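Trying the structure run again after the queue cleared.
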Amino acid sequence: MLRDIRELKDDRAAYAEELERRWTGLLSYRYIGRNHGSMNAGPVDNTVTLRCDMRNAAGGLLVAPISISSPEGDVGSDLVTVPNPVIHCCQILDNARDVKRIEVVDSEVLKAGTRMGYSRSKIVDADNHDRVIAFTEGQGVSIGTPPEGPEKTPEDQLEIADSPDLPPLG
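Done. Tokens:
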């Protein structure tokens, strides 16, 4: 059953439980192997190891792993706001055919208003930061305020072995 998490704002324990259920249920972050430091306990890892399911038939990088690894539109983490993405833009500059890992760098909040946030990131070859793969930017809106108390969720990485049998992400 779908439920608006804002309905739980007066019950800290229920809100925290629902937030953890939703965050750990978002398989996309775990599936690509990115550990978002704003939400996950454990070491921050801004890199994504690229697999064949993250590439198109010609070997170029799909937009999905870039967008999933850098969800822009920063209005704050889910621990301090109820965020809702509005716009996400991704400009791919390099097909990254021979890149093994990408890294999200230079993430910055361009403007953080009372309700709206604007941010951007640069995606580079994790082993050669001079090689820019893409730029992402976005807008997000805060649609509510969570109760005090939710904490970062335990790191729960999935180990996905690279295989030509994996279905494509895009």
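The chain has one domain: 5-142. Worth checking whether this holds up in the mutant runs.
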